[in-house]
Amino acid sequence: MEFFAEISNHVYIIGPLFILAGVLHFIYPNQYVKIMPDYIPNHRAMVFWSGVAEIALGLGVMISFLKLISGWGLILLLVAVFPANIQMFVKSYTRRKHSLRTILLFLRLPLQFWLMYWVFMATGLSF
Prior knowledge:
With about 130 residues, the protein is mainly alpha-helical. Helix content is about 75%, strand content about 0%.
């Protein structure tokens, strides 16, 4: 477990997580299309390309010479998909009000910022 005590080794958790998330875009594309905000065009294409980006950037953070650019890419991707997370919460709240699902989707919103911070730290980014 000492391996993961070093924050820079966390890319070996982050990478596979994003790769898995990207693969899920291709296994369950309709689930992702449903959560896209209406104002975003070409839902299917966006799901496809965000899946490709998650896979590529997930791989990139684990390759030393790509780590920094992939780290910034993942942070930008997390910012870009945040409206879909908001949309999921709003749709759930509209239908189910204070259900467990709605509460979990609400709690997921700040998780996006924690993920950005985790990627930032693990990839050694700085301003």
